[in-house]
Specification:
Distance between the termini: 39 Å
CATH architecture of the domain at 2-179 and 233-261: 3-Layer(aba) Sandwich
Structural class: alpha/beta
Bound molecules: nicotinamide-adenine-dinucleotide, uridine-diphosphate-N-acetylglucosamine
CATH class of the domain at 2-179 and 233-261: Alpha Beta
Order of helices and strands: EHEHEHEHHEHEEHEEEHEEHEHH
Helix content: 40-55%
Strand content: 15-25%
CATH topology of the domain at 2-179 and 233-261: Rossmann fold
Length: 337
């Protein structure tokens, strides 16, 4: 199948590109490089031993999308392109609604014009908000507590309405939990700008010596060891979830939602210990106050994805840590050269 990946050089898009290309699909990447760069596409080519087209462009450019969809005879789109920093989304809401919501409308308009009606959308567990019960299943009430989460929910609602308006649309909404890890080659991985907000990239920068210590945001939660627990999913498992979603859409019209998570919560201390094991050194930590807006624990019920997509995770925190460490070493090497 010919598949367009918007945001295809980003963290999750790049790993998905590798999985799809290795499965025999023809992949085209489109990215405006606001949070990535062209060298990622060269490294994807290196891993897959293919020349994957990579177009520089913005999803808000409907004309460019129409041209791209037509030129490459695209049959399905995976829509990764978006902004994802929770804090920034509160400070600059218009930027987030424009990029994430207006960007999605522009893409859907282009797809409609050229009659490409199969799309996989990158949503987030953030749409659930404060847990009414755990694990979150797909029926859990939706009440995002930040602007970023609301942009994701709005696009989900637009896609639901689109499916109702025209039965030819084939749509999956994938709600990712906490993506971590890297491709086993160490050639691609998460590469955040500035000081990371998320736990795994922060741990990696402490291990690299770029940051002095990890702040542990609270150890008095009602969890196994008092630190926050999350559902960390290996990015390669997540990437394989997209392949499964595309296969599902071959035989299903309408709009279906799936959680992509492991179903197994892991604490800050547990993830840190796994990384220390992989890098062979003890990392400095400091106890810090709870981070505002943090939930003590949340994780997925991934049963629906298993039942409908035949998908489940095959990797754990040890794989997450060894692959992340390989990527850290590669990136540190690139920075030094
Ligand atoms: P990322 O920032 O690494 O990748 C997103 C890519 O989209 C980047 O390469 C960026 O340059 C590109 N992009 C942004 N706006 C664009 C635009 N208007 N036009 C073209 N390209 C644009 O992020 P990621 O972690 O790979 O996330 C991919 C998607 O998954 C995002 O939509 C994100 O909201 C969602 N998601 C991510 C997480 C996570 O923790 N990583 C969790 C849940 C959902
Ligand atoms: C964050 C986002 C969420 C997004 C998710 C995806 C916020 C408020 N939420 O949530 O919208 O869907 O990432 O990956 O940004 N921690 C530390 N020290 C650190 C960093 C984190 O102790 O330096 C702890 C946190 O308190 C939490 C856990 O590590 O218990 C995970 O944090 P993080 O990686 O930021 O993920 P989320 O909190 O799930």
């Amino acid at each position: 199948m010919n598949i367009l990946l918007t945001g295809g050089t980003g963290y999750i898009g790049s790993h998905t590109a590798v999985v799809l290309a290795n499965a025999g699909h023809s992949v085209v990447l489109l990215d405006n490089f606001c949070n990535s760069n062209r060298s990622v596409s060269e490294r994807i080519n290196q891993i897959t031993n293919q020349m994957i087209p990579c177009i520089e462009g913005d999803v808000r450019d409907t004309g460019l999308l129409v041209k791209t969809l037509t030129e490459f005879k695209i049959e399905a789109v995976i829509h990764f392109a978006g902004l994802k920093a929770v804090g920034e989304s509160g400070q600059e809401p218009l930027k987030y609604y424009d990029n994430n919501v207006a960007g999605s409308i522009s893409l859907l308009e282009a797809m409609k014009q050229v009659n490409v009606k199969t799309i996989v959308f990158s949503s987030s567990a953030t749409v659930y908000g404060e847990p009414q019960y755990l694990p979150y299943d797909e029926e859990h009430p939706l009440n995002p507590i930040n602007t970023y989460g609301r942009t994701k929910l709005q696009v989900e609602e637009i896609l639901q309405d689109l499916a109702k308006s025209d039965p030819q649309w084939r749509i999956t909404l994938l709600r990712y939990f906490n993506p971590v890890g890297a491709h086993e080659s160490g050639l691609i991985g998460e590469d955040p700008n500035g000081i990371p907000n998320n736990l795994m990239p922060y741990i990696m920068q402490v291990a690299s010596g770029k940051l002095p210590h990890l702040n542990i945001f609270g150890n008095d939660y009602d969890t196994r060891d008092g630190t926050g627990e999350r559902d960390y999913i290996h990015v390669m498992d997540l990437a394989e979830g997209h392949l499964a979603a595309l296969s599902f859409l071959q035989n299903h019209q309408g709009c279906e939602t799936f959680n992509l998570g492991t179903g197994k919560p892991v604490s800050v201390i547990e993830l840190l210990s796994a990384y220390e094991q992989a890098c062979g050194q003890k990392l400095p930590t400091k106890l810090a106050p709870r981070r505002e807006g943090d939930l003590p624990i949340y994780y997925a019920k991934p049963n629906k994805a298993k039942e409908y997509l035949g998908w489940m995770v095959t990797r754990g925190v040890a794989d997450v840590s060894t692959s992340s460490y390989r990527w850290q070493q590669m990136r540190d090497g690139l920075a030094a050269s």
